[in-house]
Every structure is written in structure tokens, then in C-alpha cells.
Design goal:
The protein has 275 residues and is of the alpha/beta class. It has 2 domains: 138 residues, serine acetyltransferase, domain 1; 120 residues, Hexapeptide repeat proteins (UDP N-Acetylglucosamine Acyltransferase, domain 1, 3 Solenoid), CATH 2.160.10.10. The strands form 3 sheets. A 6-stranded mixed sheet has the order 3-6-9-12-14-15. Helix 3 packs across helix 4, helix 4 runs antiparallel to helix 5 and helix 6 packs antiparallel against helix 8. The protein is globular, with a radius of gyration of 20 Å.
Length: 275
């Protein structure tokens, strides 16, 4: 092997997200010994981020209907054909740590934040849905709704770098699409209109911030790097890089940042102009 190939192989082995999670786990062992068993079982007993993630989610979703062992087996099968799920889950974790001031360490969303765990459960459910295992996918949707209070149809397409903050009450329908680097707060609905079996749910562009309690209905597009104010009801297309607020939502100004999802400002710059 040439020197350059050796260097390339070494680079591919670097895993800063997994390294951070493991380092945080080691710190918990010292600082909070009462959590040692949980930390060992969910992090330190595993040799990869993917294995640890599959274990943590399966333990959260465990039920007499479908055991954690069966869920874990299904997740490992998914990872053999869809290894990119691990990389996307890392991107979501990094996004959550970057945007949420309550996430002081990488291990916090991984172990404790139901928004992060719900999104990762959906990623596995979506992969199973695409692989034709629709009943298992629907079961995971149902169980995730019970455990995390998050209801995402397994057919819904979700990009990478997603932060689902607090998460309670988030709903996304079958034909909804969420782009990359989107931040969504609690109580948000991406809902359909009517009951026809057709493309009927919102399409959320990259870099969008959706504030708490916002309701977005129908096959409409929220443009790239737009901001939807808390409590707004959106029923028509939103252009890129603007802020909309109100019931029904209306444009009140620019988005306030190049990528609102990274800034997480639901309020400040549009209060004066919302009149």
C-alpha cells in the first residue's frame, strides 16, 4: 500500500462524534457511578457508533409486542444495506449539539433527548419502508409515537443535520419532505389537506427554522432558509429567506440570518414588524 493510501485509510478511521460520545461516557462513570450500568450497556460495551445507536433505540422501543432484541436485529440488518444512516445520525447529533444550548456534550442527545432518538427511529423505519417491510415500519411509527410523543409516517423523507427540539407533539405526514439542516421545535404539524391518496403534505427546504406550535398544511413549499414563527398557520408557499408569522401566516420581513435553523431565533427580529 502506498503512503497516500495508508494516510487515506487512517483518515477514514477517525470518528470524532463517536470519540466524543465515548469520552463523555467515561466521564459519567466517574462523576455519576449510579448510571454506570446504563452507560456501559448503551455506549462503552459497543465498538461502533452504529451498534450503540441501534442498542439505545431498541432499548427505548422495547415492548412485549416486539422485543428490544428483535428491533435491534432489524436495525442491524438495515445498517448492512444502508450504512449511510450512521453518518446521517452523526450529522443530526452534531447539529443538535451545535444549536441547542442545553446539549453541553455529545452524549446528552444520544442518551436522553427524545427528539434526537425519534428522528433516528424514523430513519430506520423509513429504510424498512423502502425495503418493503412496511408493517415493521408502521409498528416503529406507532411505538415511537407512544415512547417519544412524535408521529412521523415512515414514508416521510427527512434530510440530514436535523434538530428536533423538545419534540413533543411533532407530526409529519406520509408525503412530507424535510430538507437538510432544518430545525423544528415542539408541537409542529406538517399536515395534509383532504383525504385523497396523493401528494398532500408540505415540502420543507434546506436551512429552515420552524417555531414551536407552527402548523403547515397541504402540498406547499417552505423555501430554503425561511423562518416560520411560533404558532403560525401556513397554508400557502413561503419564498426563500423570509420570515412568516400569524394566522394565517404572512411575510413580515427577511429571515434574520443566512441559515435560521442554525441561529434558532424564533422571535426577536420580527416582533416590531408583526404589528
Amino acid at each position: 500500500m502506498s503512503v497516500s493510501l495508508k494516510s487515506s485509510a487512517a483518515v477514514t478511521m477517525v470518528d470524532p462524534v463517536w470519540d466524543a460520545v465515548r469520552a463523555n461516557a467515561q466521564a459519567i462513570l466517574k462523576e455519576e457511578p449510579s448510571l454506570s450500568s446504563m452507560v456501559m450497556a448503551n455506549v462503552l460495551n459497543h465498538d461502533s457508533f452504529e451498534a450503540a445507536l441501534a442498542h439505545r433505540l431498541a432499548e427505548r422501543l422495547d415492548h412485549t409486542d416486539v422485543s428490544a432484541d428483535l428491533i435491534r436485529q432489524a436495525f442491524h440488518e438495515v445498517l448492512t444495506t444502508r450504512p449511510e444512516i450512521g453518518q446521517v445520525a452523526r450529522a443530526d447529533l452534531a447539529a443538535t449539539v451545535e444549536r441547542d444550548p442545553a446539549a453541553h456534550r455529545a452524549i446528552v442527545p444520544f442518551l436522553y433527548f427524545k427528539g434526537y432518538q425519534a428522528i433516528q427511529t424514523h430513519r430506520f423505519a423509513h429504510a424498512l419502508w423502502k425495503a418493503g417491510r412496511k408493517d415493521f415500519a408502521l409498528y416503529l411509527q406507532s411505538r415511537s409515537s407512544q415512547v417519544f410523543q412524535v408521529d412521523i409516517n415512515p414514508a416521510c423523507r427527512v434530510g440530514k443535520g436535523i434538530m428536533l427540539d423538545h419534540a413533543t407533539g411533532f407530526v409529519a405526514g406520509e408525503t412530507a419532505v424535510i430538507g437538510d439542516n432544518v430545525s423544528i421545535l415542539q408541537g409542529v404539524t406538517l399536515g395534509g389537506t383532504g383525504k385523497a391518496d396523493e401528494d398532500r403534505h408540505p415540502k420543507i427546504g434546506n436551512g429552515v427554522l420552524i417555531g414551536a406550535g407552527a402548523i403547515i398544511l397541504g402540498n406547499i413549499k417552505i423555501g430554503e432558509c425561511a423562518r416560520v414563527g411560533a404558532g403560525s398557520v401556513v397554508v400557502k408557499d413561503v419564498p426563500p429567506r423570509v420570515t412568516v408569522v400569524g394566522v394565517p401566516a404572512r411575510i413580515v420581513g427577511e429571515a434574520g440570518a443566512p441559515q435560521p435553523s442554525s441561529v434558532m431565533d424564533q422571535v426577536a427580529s420580527f416582533l416590531d414588524s408583526s404589528g
